[in-house]
Every structure is written in C-alpha cells, then in structure tokens.
Amino acid sequence: MPHIDYYFATISPFTYLAGRRLEEMAEAHGASITYKPLDIVTLFSRTGGTPPKDRHPSRQEYRAQDLPRQAKKAGLPFNLKPAHWPTNAAPSSYAVIAAQKAGGGDMGALVHALLRACWAEERDVAEDDVIKACLSEAGFDPGLADSGLLAGAETYERNLEEAVASGVFGAPFYVVDSGERFWGQDRLSDLEDHLAGRL
C-alpha cells in the first residue's frame, strides 16, 4: 500500500486551495497519509525560500493574481487578505498532531476546516475556540486542543527536521514512500498519476 507524507502549514493559502483532493485520491488508490504540519517560515529560512512579505514586488503581485485564479479553479471561497494572517500556526498544528494520534475523526476535514477558517471565514486559527470548533466539526474531541501540548511541540519541530531532510521546501508538499516528491496543490494530478502507475 503506498504511503504519503503530507507536509503543510495550517496558514498556507496554497494548502487551502488543495481542498480535499489528496484524501480523495488516497482513498481511490489505497494510499495512507501521515499529516505533518510544520513551521513554514522556518522552513523557508532553512531551504532558501523567502516569506511572502519579503519577496520582490513582482513576486508579490503575481501571488495576488494567481491565488484568486487558483481559488476560482478549485471552486473555493477565498479572501486574498484575511483579517488573521499571518498568525501563529503552532496551536492549530499541535491540535492536528494530537488529533492524528488520538484518531476517531476525519483528518482531512480537520486540516481543511482550519485552512478554511483562515482563508474564507475570517477566523484566527491561533485562537482556542476556533481550533476547538474545527476539531468538533471533523469529529474529534475538542479537548484535544488542551492536551498534549509538549508532545505536539516536539512533533512539530521533528516534522520540520524531517521535511528538510526529505527535500521539502514549501507547502503543500507530498512525499511518497517511493521517494517521489510533489510540491504544490497544482501537482496533485501528477501525484495521482504516480499513484496510478502512469507517471
């Protein structure tokens, strides 16, 4: 059975624009997923990237054009300048880590709910009540937001180290157990072709 390590940030717009497509294709091809939230800003600094606010104006302008286009293609509501971005991604990431360990809910739904909260609903995913609402929506115990903070912090840091070691430099990023890597929501069709043996 193929396996996918899914590296992402809970405040990444391109991760939001991936929607639920990863989960759909994993189910179709019998693949398992390990969700690995990470600190995207630190990842950039470790791998030669630049945070959006520090990029050349031409890159910022292109991003401002491309994100709404991609949202339209994906059929997802999208706010280019959400009220609560950037924000601290650590609390929501710890909740994802705790939920994955606890089980019993829908991980894809949880990740998408957190991203949707930021990019479409003007909610701050650093806030405890927002995180708990997203956990509940995805079928998890909202109390997970209060538990395992130390373990969550350790795993969050480990995810970053594993990402760097695996050649990850952005989000979303998909690493298959075959060693093939796919960067960006716009490469999900390539990932599916790989899982199907076509690529």
Low-confidence stretches: none
Tell me the name of the CATH class.
Alpha Beta
- In total, the number of strands is 4
Order of H and E elements? EHHEHHHHHHEEH
Query: Percent range for helical residues?
Result: 40-55%
The strand line-up of the biggest sheet is: 2-1-3-4
Describe the structure.
The protein is of the alpha+beta class and 199 residues long. The protein has a single domain (3-195), classed as Glutaredoxin, CATH 3.40.30.10. 51% of the residues lie in helices and 10% in strands. It is built from nine helices and four strands. The chain has a four-stranded mixed beta sheet with strand order 2-1-3-4. Helix 5 packs antiparallel against helix 6 (107-119), helix 5 (90-102) packs across helix 8 (149-165) and helix 6 (107-119) crosses helix 7 (128-137). The chain is globular and about 40 Å long. It starts with a strand and ends with a helix. The model has no long low-confidence stretch (mean pLDDT 96).
